[in-house]
Amino acid sequence: MIQGAGKVAADGSPAPAAQRGGDRAVSVNIQGVSKSYRTLRGEDVQALDTVDLAIEPGEFIAIVGPSGCGKSTLMMLVSGLIPATTGTILVGDTPVNGPITSAGIVFQRDLLLDWRTVLDNVLLPVEIRKLDPASHLQKAKDLLASVGLSEFEDRYPAELSGGMRQRVSICRALVQDPDLLLMDEPFGALDALTREQMNQDLQRVWLRSRNTVVFITHSIDEAVYLADRVIVMSSRPGKIADIIKVDLPRPRRSTVRSDKRFIDHVEHIRQHFMALGILKDD
Ligand SMILES: Nc1ncnc2c1ncn2[C@@H]1O[C@H](COP(=O)(O)OP(=O)(O)OP(=O)(O)O)[C@@H](O)[C@H]1O
Ligand SMILES: [Mg+2]
Hints:
Elements: H1 17-20, E1 28-38, E2 44-55, E3 60-64, H2 71-79, E4 86-91, E5 94-95, E6 103-106, H3 118-122, H4 124-128, H5 133-146, H6 162-174, E7 180-184, H7 192-209, E8 212-216, H8 220-226, E9 229-233, E10 240-245, H9 260-275
Parallel strand pairs: 3-8, 3-9, 6-7, 7-8
Antiparallel strand pairs: 1-2, 1-4, 4-5, 9-10
């Protein structure tokens, strides 16, 4: 059994915010954060402009926005891999001043190690952080089972499809029971059907762990399906243009996409992209 059993009411409705997070889910507070890069030519590029966002423990946040608006930058800032130019970020009560080890990160490319089996790839963070291997072995197996990969534990990444590889990388990010999960377009390279299945798998795993999630995507549909709130960003320098609360009950089935509230949210976000000139009708 995966730790941190789901906090969903019997009727499938979300638990109230105060009870929502898993035992170790953390808040994330992004306060007045701007980021400028210095290019190799010595020019300054402003990627983000004064972003303020308070994320509750156990909340699932999706971020959508045009290419180059600073989504990956925001994720790198939260993970502490790069410093902010101005502003502060708190994970829990702790200011982020360098790489945070408590976060699970899923990058756009799966970055599996080809010479390790599926199970050994999932156990990699346990090894790196010198956690107890015995207690994490069952956890790794449970996670693989929860995404339908039990039979593939002893296979190598080259023997898997793209969707299976991404499922392994999600298990790897979750194996240490991270209080914060950061995902940068994890399903961007997948075909539409696999992607829909991955959305369901991710929701199922998350409903059990209930950690805090920041999920970046180009897909409006995916954002509305997965998130408690969708953050819409404007073009570079990225700012928060809108925040949409998605009040659809969980677990969300794939048929939720034909629910009027779902369609209305998707349409609302699409209007933002039309206004930004990123989507155009002929
Ligand atoms: N190391 C860097 N040096 C200079 N400029 C950078 C650097 N990294 C990112 N940028 C610039 O910052 C802006 C934001 O980049 P970022 O990767 O955060 O965008 P994004 O929203 O993730 O885009 P995409 O949707 O295409 O992944 C872009 O204009 C990019 O060119
Ligand atoms: Mg990006």
